[in-house]
Amino acid sequence: MISRRTLIAATASLVATPALAQRKAPVAETTINPVKLMEAGPLPEKALGSADAKVTIIEYASFTCGHCATFHNTTLPKLKEKYISTGKVRFIFREFPFDPVAAAVAMLSRCAPEDKYFDVSAVFFQEQASWARAQDVVGALRTLSLQLGFTQESFRACLTNQTLLDGVNALRDKASNDFKVDSTPTFFINGAMYKGAMPIEDFDAILAPLL
User: Fold this and answer.
1) DSSP for 10-25?
2) Which domains does the chain have, with CATH numbers?
3) What's the pTM?
């Protein structure tokens, strides 16, 4: 039987229990001058959110990277809702292909209409398993691209655009040489570098003192 004394003691211990500690923000790998990060690159920027936002998040990602797909499929929608759509954060996406297939998908995303870039790239991340693991990767990409509004001709023209391929490769090389990016996803948040597909809670902790 639970006595009144036992109940009071148990209640007191609950009241005395300290609150859970606030989540600690990940430690930045290094910091790059934000002005240098924002210098014009070999390709036009792909960005979401207000240009006047207090915080800028730059992501370097490879379309064949599973961790990048996890971020885009699960965390980016929450970032959009909490920070990007509210004008607090500007999000910039930069391609960092690790292989020819990732470069091809980067090219296809950039060949989409300007206002459809993030819609198209989102589908490629959502459907990553269906094309990245296909025996006929080109055929799988063609099928998905046709569903996204490409024609046979525009699909072929995009993937044979040497100027665009050179730009994608130059974007990767600039990140590697100038900013020491060597894995994906890599994020720069107001210049501070963080690696890995961080959950929204980590972004919350990092962004809190910046906003």
Assistant:
1) HHHHHHHSPPPPPPPP
2) 25-210 (3.40.30.10)
3) 0.87
